[in-house]
Amino acid sequence: MLDTAANPQLNAHGELLHLLSIEGLPRDVLMRILDTAVPFSEVAEREVKKVPLLRGKSVFNLFFENSTRTRTTFEIAAKRLSADVINLNINTSSASKGESLLDTVDNLAAMQADMFVVRHASSGAPYLIAQHLAATQREHIRVINAGDGRHAHPTQGLLDMYTIRHYKKDFTNLTIAVVGDILHSRVARSQIHALITLGVPEVRVIAPKTLLPIGVERMGVRVFNDMKEGLRGVDVVMMLRLQNERMQGALLPSPQEYFKSYGLTPEKLALAKPDAIVMHPGPMNRGVEIDSAVADGKQAVILPQVTFGIAVRMAVMAMLGGG
Amino acid sequence: MLDTAANPQLNAHGELLHLLSIEGLPRDVLMRILDTAVPFSEVAEREVKKVPLLRGKSVFNLFFENSTRTRTTFEIAAKRLSADVINLNINTSSASKGESLLDTVDNLAAMQADMFVVRHASSGAPYLIAQHLAATQREHIRVINAGDGRHAHPTQGLLDMYTIRHYKKDFTNLTIAVVGDILHSRVARSQIHALITLGVPEVRVIAPKTLLPIGVERMGVRVFNDMKEGLRGVDVVMMLRLQNERMQGALLPSPQEYFKSYGLTPEKLALAKPDAIVMHPGPMNRGVEIDSAVADGKQAVILPQVTFGIAVRMAVMAMLGGG
Amino acid sequence: MLDTAANPQLNAHGELLHLLSIEGLPRDVLMRILDTAVPFSEVAEREVKKVPLLRGKSVFNLFFENSTRTRTTFEIAAKRLSADVINLNINTSSASKGESLLDTVDNLAAMQADMFVVRHASSGAPYLIAQHLAATQREHIRVINAGDGRHAHPTQGLLDMYTIRHYKKDFTNLTIAVVGDILHSRVARSQIHALITLGVPEVRVIAPKTLLPIGVERMGVRVFNDMKEGLRGVDVVMMLRLQNERMQGALLPSPQEYFKSYGLTPEKLALAKPDAIVMHPGPMNRGVEIDSAVADGKQAVILPQVTFGIAVRMAVMAMLGGG
Prior knowledge:
Three copies of one chain form a homotrimer.
Chain A: H1 27-43, E1 58-63, H2 68-80, E2 84-89, H3 101-110, E3 115-120, H4 125-135, E4 142-148, H5 154-168, E5 175-179, H6 186-197, E6 202-206, E7 222-224, H7 227-231, E8 236-239, H8 244-247, H9 255-262, H10 266-269, E9 277-279, H11 292-295, H12 302-321
Parallel strand pairs in A: 1-2, 1-3, 3-4, 5-6, 5-8, 6-7, 8-9
Helix pairs in contact in A: 1-5, 1-12, 2-12, 3-4, 5-6, 5-12
């Protein structure tokens, strides 16, 4: 992973230049993003779901790793801001002609790009791009990390915070559990950094030992290996997706065994506060990490997360690219 | 196939909510679509081929089965109505992550979709989606079936009706033959339902026994196994595409044999009325179901079908989504 | 290769109908394109990078050969002209259903296309399309060749001319070398025709004998097999990409050997004039045909080429399709 000590996502005045990671963003920047998203969530309710904030801007969806779902949310957000959107699935293109990441970036920058939305299998790729743009005097091109390796997925983290604030109003009196494959999850990293920064007094992680990063406690979380214990009295349950590729192999016994211990069932959910909400970044593995009765139940706010995700992405794009 | 008795494509006032199948649509709805398409066919002749009817609306092309041609016609139609279009080829995306059809639909609905254009290999998938949207109080999202399994391809049926009306003015004095692989053809099903509903007095199907569904007569058609007999005196010849996958296997002897018996040649066409028109949904297998001399001949209206197809799709989209 | 004697890209008044090849275009047409591109390069510097010249027009990117990079430049150019852009990667679509090139063209024409941007592995395919459109009375649909086989890549040639004029002002006092795999390069063909037409007094080609077409001298160029000799005193070095597929096989010893003889290093570049510029159509094979010290050095104008490429493509599209 890159050294991100020199935080390239903020300028000298502490204003957002890029969105690369939640780690390193101060509370007031996070709150400003959430506040900006509120009116955008109203745009989506209108007859004409469009505002001209990014009219004539070129937004490039640079997906070095396939993800139709995430790409779609950014594409919609950019189109509702009236930007021109260019989708690039790079594994099937120049990369296969042997061009390097930075040559690709240089080329797209030369096409007068205004914004890169980057998904990459390697942790740190969006940082590398942002640093390269700075080094080549093109920091007017903004970078949004749409998920890099196991590192970060900051817009997912932000939409989760928007969702929590929407339902719970205040972060400073909550107990929140993040459940599942913490070890491999960029989503979990972004969520935990955001929760801590926003002042959530108790953040718990619940996972088998094999799916916990070593030293996770230093992030400021309490660790639980027993799900029932960990869920007791929480206000928010944030489930993680169990990647299919983890289900085979040495880390886990079987999807059925996993579900028994770490799947969210109505019985386990009953241990949380009665008004606890259940979140999931999607796509869900029903019957693996979550029971359908919970996924479709009254406490689930999984679909509102998606809706808020569009508003949050519009807010980030507008803040970065709105001139 | 789903039970479509409860017709979810019409509301209590008999207005079109979704376009799922021609079966079950009354004559006046079909005529209203055809009438609405007329001015849209003029939009395409203008210098600026655009009207703002769907401005700010989000149209999702949900293609679970690859079809560049059909997707393109819907994409053009939506863009000429000023909609924002998002193309999703789902076989390569969430579906491969194991997400169910309805979870995908829920997610896209949560992104404030206005319209789903659905192509699916399974008969009934668009019905399932429409019923699910109703069950979840989101019937404001409209569904257009762009071809489902062997079931229906209603916009193809409608553009065929538009074409016939354009050239023949009146449906109620025509003899029309549908020729080819009736058994596997969703196009044939939609055509036959439309022709019968619009009052065509004699609808014939011409096919070898192995390519006819059992009990096809109950649809109201006359069956011919001999093409020369079946073409005698018809006003319209509607050829079907012979799917490549049918050409191997037990149902057919060989493409050459098929062409000899059921390929439309100038000689066979001479048995129809002198002013008979020849239609084909495309893409054509020249030399298999149709001779190039016919495909490119004076009686062919195959390219006008494509042109009218854009207008008909614009009409359907405008009726469903125009507020 | 097709007989292009009857030049279908100019009408009876010598005006541009299609852009198929630089060969056969008179000097004043080339100059008019370059002049038209100048204001478009300023559009890209604006806050709102959009002009309404092609509003309501349908531009089809017809890519029968995959090229994300080239497709992207045309897509951006068309969107900045406010056109509706439809991307079609035909290898995965109708073509796989066995539809012929001309049937595909007929179909898209019937959808009221205004412009086809065509990339095809077969030399002459865009000519074939233009001739077919003329034969079927649809010459109002304009064709732009985005690279056909080994034949031509005219917008690349034009953007190269724009770049040379930008840095060197006048073509008529220059010595220019084109270096690399001339034999297989459509880019080289377009460049050489353009340079000769625009009055460059000395055009050199530098390549090993195995990568030179027989009789290349008849194009009006001086041939050098020794790179050092060929570079002596030139104003412009135009490097070509060495296709990966050439690196294996009998034509070349190895990438390392090739680099030793024909790779552009600072040492070799020192033989050119001190103010010589270095060009490359991209994507570059660093360490094969060009040293990184040169690619990223002060004399390289490789990224400006990309920027000018958008302006030149906008100019061509506006001239062809702007009414």
